[in-house]
Amino acid sequence: MQTFAALLLAYVLSIFFRSFLSVLATRIMADMNIGATELAAMSSAWFIVFAAMQFPVGWALDSYGPRRTVLPLMAVGGIGVALFPFAPNALVGALAMGLIGVGCAPVFMGALYVFARNHAAHRFGLLASLLLGFGSIGNLIGTTPLSWAAEVFGWRQAMLILAVLYAVAFLMAVLFLKDPPQLARQAGGGILSGLGQVVTTRVIWFFVPVVLFSYAITVTLRGLWVAPYLEKVIGLDLAAQGEVALLMAVAMTASAFLFGWIESRWGWAKAQALFGNLAIAIILGALAWSGVQSAFWATAAFVVLGFCGFSYTILM
């Protein structure tokens, strides 16, 4: 429970930061006088830095433990969180998003590291699913509540509120995050040697394509594509876009709990992952083929896509 207390809010905000731009897209583009390409670059900055940081994060967790990995990187992220509300243009916005990506990079893996070291192996899937499920509250915050706050206070002021929450999350990590007992370090245990062990593990190459496409598609839909699609194709206003994004986020949250519970009770890990990814492919194919312009069917499609997309929990 101490790990949940230490990193849950940080993970909620990590989920928020990877998806909030879709809800603020229209406001940010108008404020900064930018187009969809510049907005996508800001979103990409978070994901590129976040992904690249996983290599040193994994090594640092093994070498130095969670506290000396998570806390310094979260401090860097705090600079980006404080900078973003004052960004005058897309370049500064992308820099801020990249710094935020640094701060978010160690949170989930730090929690998984502690789970793996401090709990029995058969409980790992359930604990990871609970963290993903509760952390998906960040998806909920980044929908209608964010749209409402931006409408009432302005998007920059709304992001300042998130900066305060990030400071609280950092304080919680300082107070509650503890290192598990140190393992004996093996000779030659650097980043490259560790990566070499990973890439020579055959089963990894069967996982990589599934993880790459299942999670990337879901996050892209929720984080960047849902609002422009609903505006340009369906003709929904900002409030309605936020409501659809909220329903999609609720589905993602529910499935994170459900998939993990099913796996812990009956197994069926491969069946769940297969079902989730096939459903995503079929629904996206149907959207492309039909050119649906119905608000009801578009909403239903995004809800099911969100639900099935979090079969990613099982892959983890």
Task: Describe the protein.
- This protein is mainly α and 316 residues long.
- The protein is 83% helix and 0% strand.
- It contains 15 helices and no strands.
- It has helices spanning 2-17, 21-32, 36-64, 66-83, 90-118, 124-135, 137-141, 144-153, 155-176, 191-199, 204-234, 238-266, 269-290, 295-309, 312-315.
- Helix 3 packs antiparallel against helix 4 (66-83), helix 4 (66-83) runs antiparallel to helix 9 (155-176) and helix 8 crosses helix 9.
- The radius of gyration is 19 Å and the shape is globular.
- The relative contact order is 0.14.
- The mean pLDDT is 85.
Give a short summary of the structure.
It contains 15 helices and no strands.
Strand-helix topology:
Elements: H1 2-17, H2 21-32, H3 36-64, H4 66-83, H5 90-118, H6 124-135, H7 137-141, H8 144-153, H9 155-176, H10 191-199, H11 204-234, H12 238-266, H13 269-290, H14 295-309, H15 312-315
Helix pairs in contact: 1-5, 1-6, 1-9, 2-3, 2-11, 3-4, 3-5, 4-5, 4-9, 5-6, 6-12, 8-9, 8-12, 11-12, 11-14, 12-14, 13-14
Number of strands: 0
Q: Main β-sheet, in a few words?
A: none
Counting helices, strands and paired strands, the structural category is mainly alpha
Mean pLDDT comes to 85
Radius of gyration: 19 Å
Q: Could you tell me how far the N terminus lies from the C terminus, measured between alpha carbons in angstroms?
A: 20 Å
Residue share in helices? Answer: over 70%
Strand content: under 5%
Inertia-based shape? globular
Give the ordered list of helices and strands.
HHHHHHHHHHHHHHH
Give the tags.
316 residues, mainly alpha, 83% helix
